[in-house]
Amino acid sequence: MSVLLQVKNLKTHFFNRNHVIPAVDGIDLNIEQGQTVALVGESGAGKSIASLSILKLIPNPPGKIVEGEILFNGTDLVSLSEKQMCKVRGNDISMIFQDPMTSLNPVLTIGEQIIEVLVYHKKMTKREAKEQAIELLKLVGFSRAEDLISEYPHRLSGGMRQRVMIAIAMSCNPKLLIADEPTTALDVTIQAQILDLMRDLKERTNTSILIITHDLGVVSEIADKVLVMYCGQVVEEAPVEELFSEPLHPYTVGLIDSIPTLDSDTDRLIPIEGHVPSPEQFPKGCRFAPRCPHAFERCFTETPDLITMNEKHSTRCFLYEGKGRKK
Predict the structure, then answer these.
(1) pLDDT in tens, 141-155
(2) For 64, 249, 285, 302, which has the most beta carbons within 10 A of its beta carbon?
(3) Can you tell me the distance from the alpha carbon of 243 to that of 231, in angstroms, rounded to the nearest whole number?
(4) Start-to-end C-alpha separation, the chain
């Protein structure tokens, strides 16, 4: 498969008085056509900032992409002007934001918000766009789509609003769909429906998906490949089955060990000790060292490289130095 998106050494920093805050600090990311890639980590790991950087939605000031390339179909998005990016956003790359209630305009009907996208990007007439909006709402599972286009966002449930967001995101048949915590705050049944819907749309349209989440249950359901982030860096990358069956980085092991399972008879979950440091206070050396049960002296003074263990599995840890090759 051809590579659709290639992110190389992306660094997004925020500038606060005399502080430089490295929210995203040199990540690499490849997404192939039709592939679903998950970006995983605790809150504060830099996942959402990485996704917003791809669409150049980082507010400047205080934030800025200071280094790296974002190659989409061979074009470096970092070099594009805001006018050029407006043609990319919503057309070639769409995004589903975390909270549909704050993403949807409360004073416009559902139909008006879908029609607006189609008229702007596809140059449709309003009548054509209305017909297409109805079809899109049917595509995401609404049986009474003709009535729904006249409704306002506050009249819909959380799951329905999320479906509308997916309809808007898919309206221009994007090559890449970025979904930032698309199932957060939804109950388990609705979560499953949303994941089924995204999977179905991907199969129908061959759209690539970048899903941002902290929920490893979601990752196991939908992803082909997983990148685990910690403190602005990728600490492990692997195919989804390999990540769950053979996690390498102590942080990934900790995340997986903290998931409750039905076949386990343990009384208590195993937490990861400590907490994610703020970007202003990233520790020297390996950023996970203060929380790592395997840390030794070198971990607190030197930063490990990302080591390739096999063709598709990489990890950032001194425990594997000499067992693979540096990326």
Answers:
(1) 888 899 999 999 999
(2) 249
(3) 19
(4) 21
Q: How many CB atoms lie within 10 A of CB 309?
A: 17
Which is it for strands 3-16 and 75-76: parallel, antiparallel or unpaired?
unpaired
Q: Do 200 and 169 form a contact (C-beta atoms < 8 A)?
A: no
Maximum separation of any 2 CA atoms in the chain, in Å: 68
Q: Is 256 exposed, middle or buried (0-12, 13-18, 19+ CB in 10 A)?
A: middle
Closest CA to 121 of 170, 75, 52: 170
Report the 3 state secondary structure along the chain: CCEEEEEEEEEEEEEECCEEEEEEEEEEEEEECCCEEEEECCCCCCHHHHHHHHCCCCCCCCEEEEEEEEEECCEEHHHCCHHHHHHHECCCEEEECCCHHHHCCCCCCHHHHHHHHHHHHHCCCHHHHHHHHHHHHHHCCCCCHHHHCCCCHHHCCHHHHHHHHHHHHHCCCCCEEEEECCCCCCCHHHHHHHHHHHHHHHHHHCCEEEEEECCHHHHHHHCCEEEEEECCEEEEEEEHHHHHHCCCCHHHHHHHHCCCCCCCCCCCCCCCCCCCCCHHHCCCCCCCHHHCCCCCHHHHCCCCCCEECCCCCEECCHHHCCCCEEC
**Is residue 266 over pLDDT 70?**
no
Mean pLDDT value across residues 187-198: 83
Q: Which pLDDT belongs to residue 190? A: 80
Tell me the residue type at 78: V
Q: Residues 11, 68: contact at Cβ < 8 Å?
A: yes
Q: Is the dihedral of CA 266, 269, 272, 274 positive or negative?
A: negative
pTM: 0.91
Q: Is 119 exposed, middle or buried (0-12, 13-18, 19+ CB in 10 A)?
A: middle
Cβ atoms 211, 223 nearer than 8 A: yes
